[in-house]
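We were asked to recover a plausible sequence for a given structure. The inputs and outputs are reproduced exactly as logged, with field labels preserved.

PROBLEM: sequence recovery
POSITIONS: 125
GIVEN STRUCTURE:
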């Protein structure tokens, strides 16, 4: 096994209501969010490729959602507008609409999930 070369290897998005967050992210991402327990923590796996960077929604003591601090950007696929269009119907809010970054770096958007976290999306289209 080789050492990962990404600056980011794992991320966690905190949830107050795990089932609500699991449903929200499954709807927005357009794929199932499988759950598992690790001791007192419940996790919903957001990664779809074992070779890439992974992450999860997590619920446990001391884990509080936030709109402050570090901002995680999820892969928005070919065009983040597809995922962003699902946010409000799933119970979230769009904080920043699809915006071009410039210089060939693609597009980004921000949303507030059902738990109160600010999360980003990024895509090249």
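RECOVERED SEQUENCE:
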């Amino acid at each position: 096994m080789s050492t990962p070369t990404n600056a980011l290897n794992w991320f966690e998005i905190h949830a107050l209501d795990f089932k609500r967050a699991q449903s929200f992210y499954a709807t927005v991402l357009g794929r199932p969010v499988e759950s598992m327990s690790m001791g007192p923590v419940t996790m919903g796996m957001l990664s779809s490729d074992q070779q890439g960077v992974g992450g999860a929604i997590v619920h446990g003591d001391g884990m509080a959602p936030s709109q402050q601090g570090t901002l995680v950007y999820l892969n928005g696929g070919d065009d983040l507008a597809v995922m962003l269009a699902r946010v409000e119907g799933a119970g979230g809010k769009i904080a920043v609409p699809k915006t071009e970054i410039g210089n060939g770096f693609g597009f980004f958007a921000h949303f507030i999930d059902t738990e109160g976290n600010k999360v980003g999306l990024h895509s090249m289209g």
